[in-house]
Design a protein that fits this description.
The protein is about 50% helix and about 20% strand. It is an alpha/beta fold. The strands form 2 sheets. Strands 7-6-8-5-9-11 form a 6-stranded mixed sheet, with helices on both faces. The termini are far apart. Bound molecules: pyroglutamic acid. The site of pyroglutamic acid has 8 residues, from strand 8.
């Protein structure tokens, strides 16, 4: 008993010693749930940093919009309200148009191409982040975006007047082009919005369907593979630069590992999530070829609009993307 008590006291003291020793704590805000694979990956990143720095840098993760709302996380980190954050890159598109490159419909249709696009997009994103006082750590894509619907979709007319859930500028613009009524719903509120009859359809990953248990209201899933949007993890530059060079290198190494791990997890989940939708009674179908063509034409219209809004930087990415050396 005495021995037990002694080890319990030791554990508490050691625990305290660990925090007392911690020189720096970063609050990291994300708009996604703790269970999401992105957040799980961040938590592992935090553990790796803790380990590599021997507790000198602690990353405290605030999931589910608790520290800042998804769309405000970029600003929160710039202003130093949170030292670090994760958001979907397209949430920054108004400020950084280049951030929308991974949500142009039908440019990327595989993880391999998504990797290629990220390699080309990264230098520009890093530059814009630096100008805004932020340091990019890593980015991980969501599985490919498909169409979830409460009714079968056979032609463009089936979208007219429907309530289409949107989560960024791309989904908003596509809803407009389809003649649907855009309804902005946060990822974590999709289940609620469906049960309240506030949405009929949405373009997002099969995984987001699974995480929100959309079966019941959602009866159909079409694997249109529209785009692979990325979540990006970043830190306030002042907070990063305040670390000793050795610590900075440790953080960047852990970030590199988190990026590789995240891409693998995303790819594995892309297949298993579609199977899980099927197992829960969602019909996995193909859209008819005519509709496929029309949606692809809308994608082209969208990309023309996007290139106009971005200017030359768009060429820096898409010329080498379409014409690799
Ligand atoms: N899930 C997020 C973004 C992309 C995805 O697959 C969402 O639906 O909000």
């Amino acid at each position: 008993m005495k021995k037990l008590l002694f080890s319990a006291v030791c554990a508490v003291v050691l625990g305290h010693a660990h925090t007392a020793m911690a020189q720096t704590t970063w609050k990291l805000a994300t708009g996604y749930r703790a269970e999401s694979f992105h957040t799980q990956n961040i938590l592992q990143f935090g553990r790796d940093v803790d380990m590599a720095t021997r507790g000198q840098l602690v990353i405290q993760v605030y999931p589910n919009n608790t520290l800042a709302k998804l769309a405000d996380i970029g600003a929160a980190v710039q202003q130093g309200k949170a030292e670090a954050g994760e958001t979907i890159m397209t949430s920054m598109v108004k400020d950084i148009p280049l951030a929308g490159a991974d949500s142009i419909p039908f440019v990327v249709s595989s993880y391999k191409d998504a990797q290629r696009l990220w390699k080309l997009q990264r230098p520009g994103i890093e530059k814009h982040f630096t100008e805004r006082g932020m340091k990019l750590l890593y980015a991980v894509p969501w599985p490919p975006q498909g169409l979830h619907s409460n009714k079968p979709v056979r032609g463009l007319a089936d979208f007219k007047g429907t309530q289409m859930r949107t989560y960024n500028q791309t989904t908003l613009r596509i809803a407009e082009m389809l003649g649907a009524k855009p309804v902005d719903v946060a990822m974590v509120d999709v289940g609620k919005a469906l049960s309240e009859g506030r949405m009929d359809n949405m373009i997002t990953s099969a995984l987001t369907g699974v995480e929100n248990k959309v079966w019941g209201p959602i009866k159909y899933y079409y694997e249109i593979n529209a785009w692979f949007p990325k979540n990006v993890v970043f830190v306030n530059s002042k907070a990063f630069d305040a670390l000793k060079p050795e610590r900075r290198a440790q953080v960047l190494k852990a970030a590199q590992e988190a990026e590789a791990r995240g891409w693998q997890a995303s790819q594995a989940l892309a297949t298993s999530a579609t199977e899980e939708l099927r197992a829960n009674g969602v019909k996995i179908e193909r859209i008819p070829p005519d509709l496929d063509q029309e949606i692809k034409r809308m994608g082209e219209k969208f990309s023309r609009e996007w290139i106009r809004s971005v200017g030359n930087e768009a060429n820096d990415i898409f010329v080498p993307y379409y014409m690799p050396q």
